[in-house]
Amino acid sequence: MLNVTEMLEEIKNSPYREIEICAPHTGRVNFAAIQQGSKVEGPHGLWKEKPGTLLCTLDRERNPKPIAAVEKGELCLLHSELEGCFVEAGTRLAVIRHLLTRDEVQAAILKKALHLFTAPERAKYYFVPEIDKKVRTSGSQSVTVKDGMELFIMSRMKREVPLVYTGPAGLIYAVYFTHTSNVDAEQPLIGVCPPDQLAAIQEVIMRVQTEWTEQG
Amino acid sequence: MDNSIEKRIQSLSERLNYIRDIFDNKHTEDVNLLQGRLATFSERAEAGSFADPFVELKSLEDLFGYVEQRLDESVTPMDKVRIVRHPQRICLRDILENVYDNFTEVGGQDEHSLDPSMLIARAVITRRRGKKSYVQSVMVIGQEKGHGEDFRNGGSVKPWGNAKAQQYMKVAETEGIPIHAYIFTPGSYPVEDYPGAAQQIARNIYSMAGLRVPIVSIISEGGSGGAEAIGLADKRLMLSHGYYSVISPEGAAAIEGRLKSGQRATPELIEHCASCQKITAQDNLHFGYIDAVVQEPPLGARPYHFDFFRQLRQEVVRATDEVVISTRLLPFFKGVALRRRRRVDLDLDELHIRWGLTSAAKDRLVERRQQKFLKLSRNACRDRRPWFSKAMAQVGNMLTAPYNRFKYDIYRRHQRKMEMFFDEIDNEWQLFKQRLFAPWYKLKRSLPRKAKNDDASKELTALSTWTGDARRRKWNYISPRYKIDRTITCPNAAQYGCLDLWGPDLFAEFAGVCSYCGYHFPMEPEWYVKNVFDEGSVFEFNSEIEAGNPLNFPDFDERIAAAQKKTGSKSGCMTFEARINDIKVVVAMFMGTFRGGSVGAAEGQKFVEAAEIAMKNRYPLLAYVHGTAGIRIQEGTHGVIQMPRCTVAVRRYIESGGLYMVLYDTNSFAGPVASFLGCSPYQFAVRSSNIGFAGPGVIKETTGMDVPPKYHRSYHALSRGHIQGIWERPQIRANLKQALLTIGGRNLYYR
């Protein structure tokens, strides 16, 4: 049984992800004008085309390579003792503490709580007609699936093949595909949760939405 | 208060606001005087304290008229820019309603149009001869600013709007009616979606260069490429308070002040740029880029200036008549008719002349138009060729032209017929010989044969050998950057995981191409000259034509001198004859290293002469664009006129049967792409190059739209249908040879 409070508390206790910034190759390190504890930006812009905050440059064969922050967060560790030193590839240079956003927390919880059924190959997917009708009229959570049930139609280049659901029985909690676009192989199609856990999951999502405060 | 008095007060109040807007906090004393007098009059009129308010109102209106007249003398170029942008400025619909007797919009209505900023209408003008009246049709094409209507986009036409204009120009050509093009645009809308801003403007200019009907254009706001899209005309009139320029004064100020995106230029710098660029009607008349100025009322024409519309009608009709008359053969009648039409007191509505042309007159019309543009701006560059060599070149031209005509048009044509005849005889003989000697061949095959040479069989069966030519191949020229003692990171390293490249390898052996992802680093123009063409075959001509400073733009002489010193070249265009595997070509190379590859009068002149030499000698013409940032803004309209001028040269060359190809490298943007480069039917690009109308910064500023990274990359241009193929740098020579042989055919130049 899903323990909502425990799960939320667990995330609340460490509401961040630590990202290690390592040297991609050997070279001499020159840190940018940045201090441990300062805030850094990740790649931004509409297409993430603008690089994040410059952390340091790694100079190899007179080729200074800028190393930028990959996520927004706080620089919780900066190995400033390495300033001017020659480092090996893989040497840890800094650690960014990235505070989880509401969406990230939600995704993490759903990943733990739901069974994700993935696409076997890149194609367009549809529900079989009777399921599709049910989803349209009463929503996806009204559909109960069980192992071996014929659930999808996989359509690729006019070739339509039925696809059987494999996994634990439960309700379709989330649908991750649309009938207009292709889904890549190994990408989730649906998230299934056992019927008795539905209320718990809904509660946890609601609590994340209401209680989780995003950091600056 | 009387209703009519209230209306006239309202009208004066609008006039006052107009003065305030166009002078932008200047002449405050005059503005305050008018404001005070108007306020006093309004108060007293409302209180009813005037014995005869109409007399007082008349005197107030006279005062407004007097002040406007006086202020008109001190209008600066930047004030004119504000005049043409003002919502009270006349727009095309006002002209259609007041200049023409009747009209029907054919290119859509209001916002229900493919592009509401491009207005197209069939209009009629009624004229009389004696008691008989004649209705003459014209195709009116122009940008519509719509007094500030949002959907008109300020007269900034999208590519499909220009395509619509081109379509109706062709309709006019089919119907044989003249075209009146009214230019009211700050510039074209810089999006790359098909048909593409630059490419469509290029197509429009190319079409107009050979359109077989009279074209008269009238410029009010002539903003660079947008204006040229409908501006190539037999007669170009300009409204006295309009402007015609290569770039908006704000854009010029941003470049001059080296401002980054988001920074704003100071009003002083903008005013300075507007005045240095010589954008007014009087300046352009002096340069010869327009044929006449239509005088507007003080401070510019507004929709209630009905006398102005009458005058504009006369001028437009006069211009059309003159174009038609100038195609006539009989010089005496032509002279008389032209002289008569130049009389100012003549009412042209009372004098009818047919606007239809015979086929021969249409030929003369197009020839005159093309010659007119080819002659423009010749004095705007420094031509340091001694008079003797110029004279010798002319004599050479005179001699070689008939020789080439004889060689290619008479001798070669018959030679081909003879060859075909002998080919056929040879075919028959081969067949006969085969049958005659068939028994002998049969006997020969049955005799025991000598074993085959091992080397020969290896040569025939092996795919390659270690000692093959390809492996020993060295570049004829290596970039000086090969001495760089460092590694270089490929810009695509994050995406494709390219490892660092060792500088000497990258710039020598790899020819500036990343060996992991194929990204092409920019190379010097010399690399192409020496590695693409046969060694020792390059013969440069017209190197003495130098880029100058025809507008005396402040500090620009020094900047040109610095560019000349840096590159060792006198202008941004190098023209030369060369060979590729013994195929002779004429090449015009635009060098991105010389002031960003911008095109001015010198570059245009060299390109036009290269096209003429290629046409004369029947060689293929290649425009190799190492890089071009657009038209050189410091040369103003001397630069922008190169767009129609060079396109005319290209059209003449292509129509004479030539093969014109364009190869883009690094960055190619703006005017040149939107004219003589974009009009080529065969355009190729070197990989990793960028092609477009305006850069991301300009797009963001003009449209407010963010453009995705790599928006202008050659692969996108290929997907949008702007270019025909993408070549790898080390393969340019082979691809060029292949293209010359396959596109040009066996005889390369000729159809």
Topology readout:
The complex is a heterodimer of chains A (216) and B (751).
Chain A: H1 4-13, E1 16-22, E2 27-31, E3 39-40, E4 54-60, E5 63-68, E6 73-78, E7 86-87, E8 92-99, H2 102-113, E9 115-118, E10 124-127, H3 129-138, E11 144-145, E12 149-156, E13 159-165, E14 170-175, E15 188-193, H4 198-211
Antiparallel strand pairs in A: 1-8, 2-4, 2-7, 3-6, 4-5, 6-8, 9-15, 10-12, 11-14, 12-13, 14-15
Chain B: H1 3-23, H2 28-47, H3 53-72, H4 77-85, H5 92-99, E1 102-105, E2 118-129, E3 132-143, H6 159-175, E4 179-185, H7 197-208, E5 215-223, H8 224-228, E6 235-245, H9 249-256, H10 267-276, H11 281-287, E7 292-294, H12 306-326, H13 331-341, H14 359-375, E8 382-383, H15 387-436, H16 438-446, H17 454-461, H18 469-472, E9 487-488, H19 493-496, E10 501-502, H20 503-509, H21 525-532, E11 539-541, E12 545-546, H22 556-567, E13 573-580, E14 583-590, H23 601-617, E15 621-625, H24 637-640, H25 642-655, E16 660-664, E17 667-669, H26 673-677, E18 682-686, E19 690-692, H27 696-703, H28 714-719, E20 725-727, H29 732-743
Parallel strand pairs in B: 3-4, 4-5, 5-6, 6-7, 14-15, 15-16, 16-18, 17-19, 18-20
Antiparallel strand pairs in B: 1-2, 2-3, 8-12, 9-10, 11-13, 13-14
Helix pairs in contact in B: 1-2, 1-3, 2-3, 6-7, 9-10, 12-13, 14-25, 23-25
Quick structural gist:
Chain A has 216 residues and is an alpha+beta fold.
Q: Tell me what portion of residues of chain A adopts beta-strand conformation.
A: 35-45%
CATH class of the largest domain in chain B: Alpha Beta
Distance between the termini of chain A: 34 Å
CATH class of the largest domain in chain A: Mainly Beta
Portion of residues within helices of chain A:
10-25%
Any key phrases for this structure?
heterodimer, A: 216 residues, alpha+beta, OB fold (Dihydrolipoamide Acetyltransferase, E2P), 2 domains, four-stranded antiparallel β-sheet, 4 helices, 37% strand, elongated, B: alpha/beta, 2-enoyl-CoA Hydratase, Chain A, domain 1, seven-stranded mixed β-sheet, 15% strand, globular
